[in-house]
Design goal:
By secondary structure, the protein is of the alpha+beta class. Helices cover about 15% and strands about 35% of the residues. The strands form nine sheets. It has an eight-stranded mixed beta sheet, with helices on both faces. A four-stranded antiparallel beta sheet has the order 5-6-7-8, with no helix packed on it. Strands 9-10-11-12 form a four-stranded antiparallel beta sheet, with no helix packed on it. A hairpin with a 2-residue loop joins strand 5 (about 80-85) and strand 6 (about 90). The protein is globular and about 80 Å long. It starts with a strand and ends with a helix. The relative contact order is 0.10. The model has no long low-confidence stretch (mean pLDDT about 95). GO terms for molecular function: serine-type peptidase activity. This is Alpha/Beta hydrolase protein.
């Protein structure tokens, strides 16, 4: 078949916004009943308004009713909405914020009625002896402002439908809890704790306490509470998991300055120490933006070996770690082509499940058994997120990620991922010597990572003749704590300069048309977008470096955000900017794009959810008003019913098409017409 030629950015593609939106399914969690060994997973379906659906692997049917939404808004980003124990499945329901239990087809609420939706529950742990008692993270929104929401650990009595407090202090408005987990006997409880201004990956601390059961009141209480790992602001300890009644494993980034990576650690009554014999310069976890995303699980009943996920070059790798010797072995196999592995859970000896994402195929819920002394993996797909209704896309249409290490100013290494224009129907451009326009993606967080898994939005553009470039700028996660802390005090400066310098690097100048590069991002990535086209400190704003820009629910006013974002991130900016709004008001002002909208010459597209409580709509209104007043070029679309990110098929489709049309108008067709 002969291949065509057409200008880059104007190729026709079978990857349509309809195809992406209608069958958009993501695997958000997988978990195992530790008694029955039954497996369950949670899918998010855009075609059902973004509803989270809990499915039994055994029956392939929904566990709860068709209108049940397995989602929680604890910490706003949720996670750990459901668990199973001895045939009973417990889950938060987004519709009414109650917790429900399902067994043998019978479903009942196990928390008291809450018509005002004051209480939010997540991250459940069932007591192994008194199995009608569950410990959970509780958020109390009685006084529903970011400054007054109270966090604690509670006990849910599923038989009596009551909730009692377990761990709560007078400083509950500043505190956070996660990952409560009982020891095998139920005699001890471990959990993670942190408080403002820390995020859990900055100063997460682990606590352990003795558990006491009162048979007269059928309640639990704690004593002898001790902090066993982590330190406020300086060391992060996350993901506690009991290997035995006396040994707790977790991840920690404690270490020598310049060589700090989140590795596996253990705590016994005798000592707390690293599991590995020497530091592995890879992070063994991602920052816990959501609850319950465990990066390791035990492979045997005695807890002597664990399967662990680490991050190398922006991709997941699997290791079997021998906890007794401190050695580790990488799982290498041609069938292992996952670039993102999450939600690792034990099933039985040397068998575990996880959610996996590939670069060249849809994601899936996976089962793996390690065979023999060499740990040969046998992978089995339990459930794929591939479309069951849409026609398959042509073979060879996927543009594969190319990881790059870019040496920028000051010999700083910055990590990027490049996707070349790719469509089997086209051999190239019809314009001699044309280089492709480029979309530069800025991830959110900002303590986050743009991973290398298949993303149909990126393929939507690369199949139309665009290049796509993701920048894991200074401050991104999974490259060690030193890399993360490059952003301290420098947000709005170094993230912007990394993006600009990356495009100007010799590697990229040879691949893309730097004068036709659009910058786009969401949330904090949207802030970097707005900063790059407005702030006086940005070289891009002085020269109109970017040809086009898209802000998805981006931050424009740091002063306003410091007051009205949600509790989880209320003090996040303190370290990113170098102090509070009261301590350094000039910094909050000088790095707020809204005050410099007169400088915006780059055509700007703004997309915003009207129900967003993380980055409220006012953040978009104000920057739009400023651009309009100064006769700039801006287009905006607000979506009813959408929160922080797009969940419904209709919004996903519209957002994709708005963005493509914007780039065509602002930088592709205008260039071709010349």
């Amino acid at each position: 078949m002969s291949r065509e030629y057409a200008p880059y950015g104007l190729w026709e593609s079978p990857i349509t916004a309809d195809a992406i939106a209608e069958d958009s399914v993501s695997m958000s969690d997988i978990f195992v009943d530790p008694v029955t060994k039954d497996i369950y997973y949670i899918e998010q379906r855009a075609s059902e308004g973004g509803r989270y659906v809990l499915l039994s692997n055994q029956t392939q049917n929904e566990v709860f009713a068709k209108d049940f939404n397995v989602r929680t808004r604890v910490h706003e980003y949720g996670g750990a909405a459901a668990i199973a124990y001895n045939g009973t499945v417990y889950s938060s329901n987004f519709a009414d914020f109650l917790v429900y239990a399902a067994k043998d087809g019978k479903i009942k609420p196990i928390t008291p009625e809450d018509p005002k939706k004051i209480y939010r529950y997540a991250d459940f742990s069932v007591h192994p002896v008194h199995t009608d008692l569950l410990v959970a993270v509780l958020e109390d929104h009685t006084h529903d402002t970011p400054q007054t929401v109270r966090s604690s650990l509670c006990v849910i009595n599923s038989a009596a439908t009551t909730v009692t407090s377990l761990v709560c202090t007078e400083n509950a408005q500043r505190e956070f809890y996660a990952a409560p987990t009982f020891s095998p006997s139920g005699d001890r409880l471990a959990w993670q704790f942190w408080e403002h201004p820390d995020m859990p990956w900055e100063g997460g601390r682990l606590y352990v306490a003795d558990v006491h059961y009162n048979p007269n009141t059928h309640t639990l209480s704690l004593s002898n509470t001790k902090m066993v790992a982590g330190s406020a602001s300086t060391i992060s300890a996350c993901y506690p998991l009991w290997a035995s009644n006396d040994k707790l494993l977790f991840t920690s980034d404690e270490g020598e300055e310049g060589n700090r990576f989140a590795n596996l650690w253990e705590c016994t009554q005798a000592c707390t120490k690293p599991v590995l014999s020497s530091v592995v310069q890879q992070d063994f976890c991602m920052p816990p933006w959501t609850l319950g995303n465990y990066p390791f699980a035990f492979l045997d009943d005695s807890g002597t070996k664990a399967i662990c996920v680490a991050w190398r070059g922006g991709r997941s790798v699997l290791y079997v770690v021998d906890i007794t010797t401190g050695s580790y072995k990488e799982i290498k196999d041609e069938s292992f082509d996952f670039v993102v592995v999450e939600h690792v859970r034990r099933v039985s000896d040397y068998t575990f499940v996880f959610t996996g994402l590939r670069s060249n195929a849809p994601g899936a819920a996976m089962l793996c058994t390690l065979i023999g002394p060499s740990f040969m993996p046998d992978f089995q797909v339990l459930r794929s997120t591939a479309s069951t209704s849409a026609a398959p896309f042509p073979e060879g249409i996927i543009s594969l990620p190319i990881p790059l290490e870019l040496k920028l100013a000051g010999d700083n290494i910055v990590y990027a991922v490049y996707y070349a224009p790719n469509n089997p129907a086209y051999a190239g451009s019809s314009i001699p010597n044309e280089k492709p326009p480029c979309v530069l993606g800025v991830h959110g967080g900002p303590t986050g990572l743009e991973t290398q898994n298949l993303n149909w939005l990126k393929q939507y553009f690369t199949s139309r003749g665009y290049a796509w470039l993701d920048i894991n700028y200074s401050g991104s996660s999974c490259y060690g704590r030193t890399y993360v802390e490059r952003l301290k005090g420098n947000w709005g400066i170094i993230d912007v300069s990394d993006c600009i310098e990356a495009v100007q690097s010799p590697e990229l100048r040879s691949l893309i048309d730097t004068k036709r590069t659009a910058i786009r991002g969401g949330s904090s990535g949207g802030y970097t977008v707005l900063a790059s086209i407005s702030l006086a400190s940005s070289a891009a704003s002085k020269t109109k470096f970017f040809a086009s820009a898209t802000s998805n629910f981006g931050i424009s006013n740091l002063e306003l955000l410091a007051d009205d974002t949600h509790k989880f991130e209320l003090m996040y900016m303190t370290k990113l900017l170098g102090g509070t709004k009261e301590e350094i008001p000039h910094v909050y002002h000088d790095r707020s794009p809204v005050y410099f909208s007169a400088r915006i010459e780059t055509p700007l597209l703004v997309l915003q959810g009207n129900d967003d409580e993380v980055v409220p709509p006012a953040q978009s209104w104000t920057i739009i008003d400023g651009v309009i007043k100064n006769k700039g070029h801006v287009e905006a679309h607000f979506f009813d019913g959408e929160q922080h990110g797009w969940r419904t098929s209709e919004t996903i489709k519209k957002a994709i098409e708005f963005e493509r049309e914007w780039y065509e108008k602002s930088m592709v067709r205008a260039s071709v017409s010349k």
